[in-house]
Every structure is written in structure tokens, then in C-alpha cells.
Design goal:
The chain has about 350 residues and is an alpha/beta fold. It has 3 domains: about 10-60, 434 Repressor (Amino-terminal Domain) (Orthogonal Bundle); about 65-160 and about 290-330, Rossmann fold; about 160-285, Response regulator (Rossmann fold). The protein contains 13 helices and 12 strands. The protein has helices spanning about 10-15, 20-30, 35-50, 55-60, 80-90, 105-115, 130-140, 160-175, 190-205, 225-235, 245-255, 290-305, 310-315, and strands spanning about 65-70, 95-100, 120-125, 145, 155-160, 180-185, 210-215, 235-240, 265-270, 285, 330-335, 335-340. A 6-stranded parallel beta sheet has the order 2-1-3-4-5-11, with helices on both faces. Strands 7-6-8-9-10-12 form a 6-stranded mixed beta sheet, sandwiched between helices. α1 packs across α2 (about 20-30), α5 (about 80-90) runs parallel beside α12 and α8 (about 160-175) runs parallel beside α9 (about 190-205). About 45% of the residues are buried.
């Protein structure tokens, strides 16, 4: 069975008895065409079932109704909530979301942003591996909102994972641990630097030794190396950059016959799917990732459409508290909290 050909603008123009340029103006800028002619063209377009292509709309309006979500690793479950949050909010406003995976590469990320110019109306840039200068430069050519990053002049949403890491440290100290490791994330991670900057003074305040291990790729496979380093360093607890790394640490400690939490306590970050299913169940820092996605989309829509975000009007979704920030130029910061499970216990 043959597929029915979709009517084109030329078909509409021929049926309405006008030039193609006139039909185009009637459908996109009716005020520039005689009212009777515009009504006739619109009626014909509806009768034929004409739908203007995305590229045609973009050419005529300068808008694509498409937004990119740029991620460092699309396979990382942490980002699933972000995808849902941004996608749902954008869909509500008539936008389509496309995903771009930069594979933890700053070079790929920068090239992706360059190629997105003119292809999308804007982008949400999550956990960027680029420098501040590179992001600021990209923001001059493409409407951007950043997640887990602060760039002057660029709207953003922060998850207070640094504060969550301090909660994790305080939890371990309360259990009697005095020598604790932080298994760091990628060297290019802005969020990782921020966490270390929060952990080091907190450790000094609490009077405990903090041993920084790594950096490590934020994947499960890196956990073996982190676990070996933790055992060799003589710590009794490990705070991992993310849950995937913590999963790998748990696996390696099990292989080595190191009881968790008997001889080593382990804490992750993100509370991804499976954190409560591993054995022992993982103590971890939970972040409102889906909410962050919706807020990031709101901020981008405000830039594209000149409106205010829902959270600015309502004071935050679901009546959850928002961590105060210094002034309106700062990014919105969302609180995190520690979920205690069975992977942490008293120091042996």
C-alpha cells in the first residue's frame, strides 16, 4: 500500500490560487497579506492537511521549538531524573527535547555546542566538563542554562551535593570513624572540586583525617581501584563521588573479604536506582534531580519566551525548601539529604 504524500506549501498555494511566497506569508505573517487571501490560504491548508516542516518554521520564524539536553554520560542513571524533569516541562510548553551525550569529553562537549547553533533554540548543559570561559563563550551564541555549575550571567540550578557530602562526613564521625577517604570524581568535574572544598574544612572542624583518593572515572569499573587504595590507606570509611563508583567499591571489598560495614563503611552520592538493592544497601546522598530538571527547563523557557519560571512565582515546587543564595544573579540551589542504609556502621 502506497504511503500518502504529505501536501506541501506549493500544493497549498496552487489550490488557493496564490504564489508560494504569498501562501507562506499568509500562514506565518497573516498581517502582511490581504485578510480575504489569508483566510482562503488557511482554509485550504486545513482542508489539505498541510503541516509546515520544522525546518521551514525555523527558517521563517528563527525558532525550532527544540531544546537540547547535553549530558556527560547518557548511561549514568543519575541523569535519568534530569531527562524526565526537563522533558516533561519542555513538552508542556510545546518544545521537543533532544539528548546529546558528550562521553565525559570536554572536546566532544565543545564541538557539540558549536554544532547545535541554529539547530535548537537553547540547551540545558548538565555537569559540564568545560571551563568557565568556554561555557561563557558558548552562551553568547546559544541560550544556555547550566545544571551543577555557576557561570556569571548564565542561569543555573545547583544540587547541594557538597552539603550532602558534609552530612555524610558528620554521619561517619558520629559512628566513631576518625580516618575517612573521599574517592574523588573526574579531574574535570566542577562538582567534584566543590565537594572537596567543602569536605576539607569540615574534616578539620571535626578533627578527623580526610584522605583524598583518585581522581576516578565516575563508573562502576573504577570502584575496584578506589577500594584497593582505601584499604591500603588504612581508612575505615569511604565516601565515593557517586553511587556507581560506590557500587564498584562494594564489589571489590567483597572480593577482598573486607566486611562492610564491619571493617569498612561506604557512602555514595545520588541515590540512583539500585542503591537500595545492592548488598549491603548503600548509604547515599539523595538529590532532587527531576525537580532540578524542571527548574532548569523553566529558566531556559524564561530566556526564550521572556516569562518567569514557575518556581520563581511559587517559591519552589512541592513546597520544598530552597537553600538561600546570595543574590538574584546566583543560581537556584536545591538541598540534598543523607539516606542512611546498612553500608555504614560503627568504626571497627
Amino acid at each position: 500500500m502506497a504511503v500518502r504524500r504529505q501536501p506541501t506549501l506549493r500544493d497549498v498555494a496552487a489550490a488557493a490560487g496564490v504564489a508560494v511566497s504569498t501562501a507562506s506569508r499568509a500562514l506565518t505573517k497573516p498581517g502582511r497579506v490581504n485578510a480575504d487571501t489569508a483566510d482562503r490560504v488557511v482554509a485550504v491548508a486545513k482542508e489539505l492537511g498541510y503541516i509546515p516542516s520544522a525546518s521551514a518554521r525555523a527558517l521563517l520564524s528563527g525558532r525550532t521549538a527544540t531544546v537540547a539536553l547535553v549530558l556527560p554520560d547518557v548511561t549514568n542513571p543519575f541523569f535519568f531524573g534530569l531527562v524526565r524533569g526537563t522533558g516533561a516541562r519542555l513538552r508542556e510548553s510545546g518544545y521537543v527535547q533532544v539528548l546529546a551525550d558528550t562521553e565525559e569529553s570536554a572536546e566532544v562537549e565543545l564541538d557539540t555546542l558549536r554544532k547545535l547553533r541554529g539547530q535548537v533554540d537553547g540547551a540545558v548543559l548538565a555537569a559540564s566538563r568545560l571551563s568557565d570561559e568556554q561555557i561563557a563563550g558558548a552562551a553568547q551564541d546559544l541560550a544556555l542554562v547550566v545544571v551543577n555549575r555557576t557561570i556569571p550571567g548564565t542561569p543555573g540550578v545547583l544540587l547541594d551535593t557538597a552539603g550532602g557530602m558534609v552530612q555524610a562526613l558528620e554521619h561517619l564521625v558520629g559512628l566513631g570513624h576518625t580516618r575517612i577517604a573521599y574517592a574523588a570524581g573526574p579531574a574535570t568535574s566542577w562538582s567534584d572540586r566543590r565537594r572537596r572544598e567543602a569536605l576539607e574544612p569540615a574534616a578539620a572542624r571535626l578533627g578527623v583525617d580526610l584522605v583524598v583518593l583518585g581522581p576516578y572515572a565516575p563508573v562502576r569499573a573504577s570502584g575496584a581501584q578506589a577500594a584497593d587504595a582505601a584499604v591500603e590507606s588504612g581508612v575505615t570509611a569511604v565516601i565515593a563521588f557517586n553511587d556507581l563508583l560506590a557500587f564498584g567499591v562494594l564489589e571489590r571489598l567483597d572480593v577482598r573479604g573486607v566486611p562492610v560495614p564491619g571493617r569498612m563503611s561506604v557512602i555514595g552520592c545520588d541515590d540512583i536506582f539500585g542503591a537500595d538493592l545492592v548488598r549491603p544497601a548503600l548509604t547515599t546522598v539523595e538529590s532532587p534531580v527531576e525537580r532540578a530538571g524542571r527548574m532548569a527547563a523553566d529558566l531556559l523557557l524564561a530566556r526564550l519566551e521572556g516569562g518567569r519560571s514557575d518556581d520563581e512565582d511559587a517559591g519552589g515546587l512541592d513546597d520544598e525548601p530552597v537553600v538561600p543564595v546570595r543574590d538574584a544573579a546566583d543560581p537556584v540551589m536545591l538541598p540534598t539529604h543523607l539516606i542512611v542504609r546498612s553500608s555504614t556502621g560503627a568504626a571497627g
